[in-house]
Amino acid sequence: MRHNFGAGPCILPQEVFKQASRAILDFKDGLSILEISHRSPEFEGVMAEANKLVKELLNVPSGYSVLFLQGGASLQFAMVPMNLLPEGKTAAYLETGVWANKAIKEVKFFGKAEVVASSKEANFSFIPKDFAIPADAAYFHYTSNNTIYGTELFEVPKTTVPVVCDMSSDIMSRVIDVSQFDLIYAGAQKNIGPAGLTIVIVKDEILGQSGRAIPSMLDYASYKDNDSMYNTPPVFSIYTAMLNLNWLKSKGGVAEIEKENKAKADALYKEIDRNPLFKGTCAVEDRSRMNICFVMENPELEKPFAKFADDNGFEGLKGHRSVGGFRASMYNALPITSVHALIDLMQEFEEKQNKN
Amino acid sequence: MRHNFGAGPCILPQEVFKQASRAILDFKDGLSILEISHRSPEFEGVMAEANKLVKELLNVPSGYSVLFLQGGASLQFAMVPMNLLPEGKTAAYLETGVWANKAIKEVKFFGKAEVVASSKEANFSFIPKDFAIPADAAYFHYTSNNTIYGTELFEVPKTTVPVVCDMSSDIMSRVIDVSQFDLIYAGAQKNIGPAGLTIVIVKDEILGQSGRAIPSMLDYASYKDNDSMYNTPPVFSIYTAMLNLNWLKSKGGVAEIEKENKAKADALYKEIDRNPLFKGTCAVEDRSRMNICFVMENPELEKPFAKFADDNGFEGLKGHRSVGGFRASMYNALPITSVHALIDLMQEFEEKQNKN
């Protein structure tokens, strides 16, 4: 039995793997999902269903479009200012980690980014709370979940300017109110589907306002106007995302998975706080439900615990080098049984230490 | 028995489908290829092998880099001038079809495109031959195979300026001399692998010369400097491309597949020229080996022949709306038996007509 706590690309439901595997051999009439035209009625059906599922699961209001792109969140770091930042204007950014920082860096090609607050000095171990967003900013950008540092923003900061959010690592993990956002983007490879797909949810009225001439493939309008088929889309990633979103729907949707995600996170944090060998790395009130970072009170025990986890079939628990220690990524598809197995492992390790 | 003559995403070898399907269930130690980290040694091995295979199969000389990107050829239409066209300079383009035309349109965001020749007036039914490429052009761009119109450029036009080629639909189908090019790009979904991957082969010394500040994900240097892992790459598409390139290698490589592609194309063109019901749409000397376009002498027979093909398990034979009639796309993975089956079908249809 393997337990995949990897940070992404990450675990998807086993039944999604089975369905995707079958579709590679026979999607329709003996043809593989890899050899069908994206212009075929069959794939147009897949695209339409994937779109509908995103809208349904996140309760996307009218006046918003769901777009399927490529290039990951990293391409969005540039596309957001390219599409939303008029020449000479400033955008406001909250700096909560490496990905926020990378997003900030890409703004310079289009204008100015003002960092309204940062927890960089504290190695991004908390989410800054009291900051002012300038009323004349073209938009305010933040990262809702910080995969590397294990912090998460559950409340949308209050502002009168358009809100843009990188939700790559917590989209579909909890209920959100899309109407509070003007643009949401997410690389697919956590809770949506395989790598190679990016989802954008955009309020239609904010498009076409920057006054910039934008190359077709970098213009959100090209995707909106062509049902995300301006050119050949990433067919297999979209198909598998559709399977995965259907799985989420069958589980009861985002509200139900949120309960499960809360239960999973609560259980593991409880053990981290109880077990004298381990400690969390973040401010308690900002703890992420998706990526749970922890270190050992005695750093010399890190290697032995890592080996113990490895020997017992645990994958992807190594912390990012900028935090060290361990990171348990617990996306939607990670079963709670894997979390319990990890807790058991931590307790067994504690008992072993006590015997020494 | 199905025969998939689709223009792309298109047929891949059946054994590649089988291997890809298996890897979705179990790539390594019970983990799916969709749930492994792109930073794992296993995937780094896949990436390195895919890179090596491209170099080996195309005999890429030293001083060139092979890059794996997303966004298709359409994103390259913008990335090429963004990376290679200095402010105020002009690039030379050969207009041989819709894709060349789209590439030309994206230049305007960065500078000027000079169309050195066009066959637009003749519905792109031939490749312009006598044209001059200005010696002060920043580069010369052409499309080697025109999927929609069924024409192909087998000789690289002579010029002293850097040569950029969109080889999306004939890369890996015939031997090329990479040293004649400064940049080659190709959407993967014909002869390389599944949709969602783009390959770029670039002469290192032409990078960083445009004087432009380029966003990270749009800068070829980011891919070159990070082994195409500046961010999460399209893992599954790269893995399947690796399988497919390995298949090509096992078949004897590009020189061998070129012989087979020639034999396939020769056989079908021979039948088109012989069969009084059919005729080709392009100049004979410019006929593509990848996409064979033909119409019926009597347009009233198009529907009956389309139905006859459909009833007999032939997929994707409908011509593009801008040419009409039929298009048989015959990429590397289409077996010659499918070509013979199509020829038989055309002859049976002829016999049926003679009986009427």
TrEMBL record, chains A, B:
EC number, as in UniProt: 2.6.1.52
Domain of life: Bacteria
Domain Aminotransferase class V: 4-340
Cofactor note: Binds 1 pyridoxal phosphate per subunit.
Localization per Swiss-Prot or TrEMBL: Cytoplasm
Cofactor field: pyridoxal 5'-phosphate
Keywords of the record: Amino-acid biosynthesis, Aminotransferase, Cytoplasm, Pyridoxal phosphate, Pyridoxine biosynthesis, Serine biosynthesis, Transferase
Binding, L-glutamate: 39
NCBIfam families according to UniProt: PRK05355.1, serC_1
Role played: Catalyzes the reversible conversion of 3-phosphohydroxypyruvate to phosphoserine and of 3-hydroxy-2-oxo-4-phosphonooxybutanoate to phosphohydroxythreonine.
Pathway stated in the Swiss-Prot or TrEMBL entry: Amino-acid biosynthesis; L-serine biosynthesis; L-serine from 3-phospho-D-glycerate: step 2/3; Cofactor biosynthesis; pyridoxine 5'-phosphate biosynthesis; pyridoxine 5'-phosphate from D-erythrose 4-phosphate: step 3/5
Modified sites of kind N6-(pyridoxal phosphate)lysine: 190
Pfam families named in the record: Aminotran_5
InterPro entries: Aminotrans_V_dom, Aminotrans_V_PyrdxlP_BS, Pser_aminoTfrase, PyrdxlP-dep_Trfase, PyrdxlP-dep_Trfase_major, PyrdxlP-dep_Trfase_small
Gene3D superfamilies (UniProt xref): Aspartate Aminotransferase, domain 1 (3.90.1150.10), Type I PLP-dependent aspartate aminotransferase-like (Major domain) (3.40.640.10)
GO biological process: L-serine biosynthetic process; pyridoxine biosynthetic process
SUPFAM superfamilies referenced in this protein's UniProt entry, alphabetically: PLP-dependent transferases
The family this protein is said to belong to: Belongs to the class-V pyridoxal-phosphate-dependent aminotransferase family. SerC subfamily.
Predominant subcellular localization, coarse grouping: cytoplasm
Gene Ontology cellular-component annotations: cytoplasm
Keyword Transmembrane included in the entry's annotation: no
Protein's name in the database: Phosphoserine aminotransferase
Binding, pyridoxal 5'-phosphate: 73-74, 99, 147, 166, 189, 231-232
Catalytic activities: 4-(phosphooxy)-L-threonine + 2-oxoglutarate = (R)-3-hydroxy-2-oxo-4-phosphooxybutanoate + L-glutamate; O-phospho-L-serine + 2-oxoglutarate = 3-phosphooxypyruvate + L-glutamate
GO molecular function: O-phospho-L-serine:2-oxoglutarate aminotransferase activity; pyridoxal phosphate binding
